[in-house]
Every structure is written in C-alpha cells, then in structure tokens.
Amino acid sequence: MLTLSGLSKTYKTGDTALADVTLTVPEGQILGLIGPSGAGKSTLIRCINRLVEPTAGEVTLGKVNLVGLGKSELRRQRRRIGMIFQEYALVERLTVMENVLSGRLGYVPFWRSFLRKYPGADVQRAYQLLDRVGLIDHADKRADALSGGQRQRVGIARALAQDPELLLVDEPTASLDPKTSRQIMRLLTEICAERGLPAIVNIHDVPLAQQFMQRIVGLRAGRVVFDGSPDELTEATLTTIYGEEDWNEMRRGDEEQAKAEADARERMEALAQ
C-alpha cells in the first residue's frame, strides 16, 4: 500500500507544483491522475520515487517512509517501484531482451551488468515477461527497430522485471495512436489485476482514463480537486479540474478524433467490399 501525507513541492523560484497532497493507494488499485498541463501530475509521480525531492510531507510504501532516506537505502527501496515512461527510456542500441534485463540492475553486481551476464533465472524470467507482453518473437531485435507500441511493451516488461510492489506510469499513451493506446492500457490493467499490483497512471486522455481506471484523482494547480470513481466524473467536475475553456477545447478535440476514427473505419469497410 502507498500512502502520501501532506506531500508538497515548491521550487526555488517560489512556484508551487504540489500542495498538501494526501491520499492512499491500496493493493491492486489502479489510480488515474488527470488534470491540465502544469497541474503537478508528473511531479507527483516523480516525488514518490524521489526523482524530484519533495519539499514537505511523507511517502510511505508499505511501512517505509521514502522521504529522507539516504542514497544507499533509497537505491534499495527504488527496486520496489517500477517506472514506465512516456518516451519509453529504452537504450536504443541494445536488444529488447537486454532492455528488459536492465530492470534487474538493482539486484545484480556491477560486473554482471557491465558484461551483460545476468543469472539464468533472470534471463528465463525476462523471456516469460516478453511472452506476456506479446514480444517473445522480438527478443533479439534492437529497440530502435520497434514501433511505439512495441517500445512501450518493452518498458512494461522492464518495469515488471524488478518484481515491483508499485507501478508509476507517466503518460503511457501520449505518443501512441488511439487503437494502440487502448491495447497498452488494457495490458497494464490486466497485468495489475493478475499481480494485485497498485499503479498510479498519469494520463491526459480523459475517456481512456474513464474506461480503464478504477479510481481517478484530478489535480489543479498542485491540489487534489477530485478523488472518486470514473462514474462520478461529471461534466461539472471536469470543468472544475480543467477550467471551462480548456475542458471545452479538449472535448471538441475528442469529438473530432472520434469522427476521424469512424470515417477511417467506413473507408476500410468500403474498400473491403
């Protein structure tokens, strides 16, 4: 279980990115973070694993408060947190298998990682994970030969290779087309359900969040302004989260995208006849 208590982040410029965020994510729950650009979504995720240092508050994973840990202990605790990035963060020149195995770096001696000689059990586990994300036939391909959706699947497998107790997912569909986005979100939710794994997903696509998230937290100017189920996310609530102008613009964009997808399907059906 993850608990955030009074989590805040103020930069040296005086800008406040997070203000007194308090919430609990129980085992197995998938929580979606939504809000306008600059609301603090990415900062919140990065404060949890201390890629960004919080100004105040506590981040408790299980019974361990991650805030204030020294470098050595923080490195050990970070093994419990899998991170999936928007831009994949793969080593392009390495193979898919080598990228997945990099999820074990926190568990093996330096010489093993330097020589790329991982224990047999880790290699076998990596093959199992690649099979689970549908990439077993791509194990020996270089990462830069993959599509965006395939790269994101590698990122998921790499995070799972850590055997994490928590997943942090930062805009996993921002660079993907609508169909691939749904496939990635479905894969993430299935894996979390299989493992009882809690996850926090920073997601910009509101309909996608409503479709796949169990719980949604809305941030605005670094503060929690909504915390509830997708069914409770009304038009009025979304206007509160995004502001009237931004929400209306987002809604128009979603409608245009839906129409474009429908037109594309009609063209494909016409060509098939």
UniProtKB/TrEMBL annotation:
PROSITE patterns: ABC_TRANSPORTER_1, ABC_TRANSPORTER_2. Residues 248-273 are annotated as: Disordered. One of its GO terms (molecular function) is ATP binding. Residues 2-246 form the ABC transporter domain. The keyword Cell inner membrane does not apply. GO terms for cellular component: membrane. The keyword rRNA-binding does not apply. It comes from the Bacteria. Keywords: ATP-binding, Cell membrane, Hydrolase, Membrane, Nucleotide-binding, Translocase, Transport. Its EC number is 3.6.3.28. PANTHER family: AMINO ACID IMPORT ATP-BINDING PROTEIN (PTHR43166), PHOSPHONATES IMPORT ATP-BINDING PROTEIN PHNC (PTHR43166:SF6). This is Phosphonate ABC transporter ATP-binding protein. It comes from Paracoccus onubensis.
